[in-house]
Amino acid sequence: MSVDKLRVQLQLCLERFRRGELAEADLAQALALAEPSPQQLLYLQAGGSSVDSRVIGMALIAGGEVQEVPADPEQWPYQTVLDAIRAGWRVIKFPELALLVHPDQTIGLGCEFVLEK
After folding, report:
1. Distance between CA 40 and CA 36 in Å, rounded?
2. How far apart are CA 115 and CA 90, in angstroms?
């Protein structure tokens, strides 16, 4: 669901209501916009714990399926976590800093960010 689109549709409904022009279709459209959409998850492995660190690995889950991402990192849609945030992704998990034993060596995934839409 896009909150912005829903807000615009509700404002339109309010204006039409005030003019006595509100139709069932207007409300149906608002209801459709309010329906939850399938969660999208974006896993980004970054070279560091900062949101402006370069992405070194990624996985995308959309529509309940793992999506193909280009093999060439230069073709990835996001080069940094900040790029993904600017595109509307919300961070729901930051890297586990306790896994960073040494600045040049990580255990496990280390600097993994999890984002959702």
Report:
1. 12
2. 5
> In which domain, by residue range, is 18 found?
3-34
* Distance (Å, whole) CA 93 – CA 58: 14
Tell me the CA distances in angstroms from 106 to 61, 72, 98, one per residue in order: 25, 23, 10
What does the pLDDT average to over 96-105?
A: 65
Q: Residue 102: is its pLDDT beyond 90? A: no
CA distance 107 to 16: 58
107 vs 80, higher pLDDT? 80
For the four alpha carbons of 52, 74, 66 and 36, in that order, the dihedral sign comes to: positive
Sequence-distant (≥ 6) Cβ neighbours of residue 49 within 8 angstroms: 94, 95, 97, 100, 111
What pTM value is reported for the model? 0.65
Residues 72 and 26 in one domain: no
Do residues 47 and 89 share a domain? yes
